[in-house]
Amino acid sequence: MRPRTRRHWRWVVLGMAAVLAAAALTAWRSAIHHNRQVAFEPFPIAGNLYYVGTPDVTAFLLTGPQGHVLIDGGYPESAAGIMANIARLGFRITDVKVLLNTHAHEDHAGGLAALQKASGAQLWISRGDARVVAAGGVGDPTLGPFRLLAYLGLTGYPAPRIDHRFDDGATVRLGPIELTAHATPGHTPGCTSWSFPVRDGARRWLAVDVCSLTVLPFDYPGRQAGFERSFRTLRSLPAELFLGSHASFFGMQRKLAQRAKATDPVAPFIDRAGYLRYVDRAEATFRRDVAKRGDR
């Protein structure tokens, strides 16, 4: 038998490394797929506003006599849970007539295609994020070099059909439901925060669903100016009912614990002070990031 050469063993080692890498990638994707399907009990927030998302990635349902509005679609794996939550509250997915989105990242736009197919709803996407959403996450400038993973099929999501592209200040109406789009770029170029009135009997509040002020590590043209604009815009809104694209932004778990002891179940969610603290903390983080980049 011919002795094994160094080249032979090199190929053996590379082959074993490839097998181990493939196994690790499979296990990683399986774990991620499982974690994105974690169920969470839906609940009414106030009036016709309901929470139908996952433990941290939010989705909000606004119900009305002419149909319902759903804000954000979670991950691709989250769509089934969102639909189950809508049904658990006694509503039908086919009565969702409008789908809205805060931004183009997979954890908020990934389930839109499935939700759109199940509901037949019209999808509204900001002009700044429309190209990325229409491509199923491909070409996202906020991911830096990691955007290449979408081309390899390792990230990304099913591309939905975009029915309406909108700009800052757009108003979306469905019967008595009315939402206003506020461009709050920085996290993504088309990051959109939504404001809308919520009525509960004789009471009325302005709800603001903040897109995100999280500073990602990769720069893109206009990012700094976008964040500067977003801080000004959000502070100018007379927000009372504080919401966000992640439950951690507005302390949802803490507020649910407070709610269990409160005489008024809406009271913990009326939190303008918390809203302003969130903006202040995000701006401080942004300023530190700008200073650090200036030192490079």
Q: What is the domain total for the residues?
A: 1
- Count the E strands: 12
- Shape-level CATH architecture: 4-Layer Sandwich
* Percent of sequence in beta strands: 15-25%
Question: How much is the average pLDDT?
Answer: 90
Distance between the termini: 59 Å
CATH T-level topology: Metallo-beta-lactamase, Chain A
Radius of gyration: 22 Å
Which sheet architecture does the biggest sheet show? 7 strands, mixed
The shape, in one word, is globular
Unreliable parts? 17-34
What do you see in this structure?
This protein has 296 residues and is α/β, with parallel strands linked by helices. The chain has one domain (38-294): 4-Layer Sandwich (Metallo-beta-lactamase, Chain A). The protein has helices at residues 6-35, 79-88, 106-109, 112-119, 127-134, 148-151, 223-236, 252-259, 272-294, and strands at 43-46, 49-51, 60-62, 68-71, 96-100, 122-126, 164-166, 171-174, 177-183, 192-200, 203-210, 241-244. The strands form 2 sheets. The chain has a 7-stranded mixed beta sheet with strand order 1-2-3-4-5-6-7. A 5-stranded mixed beta sheet has the order 8-9-10-11-12. Mean pLDDT is 90; it is low at 17-34.
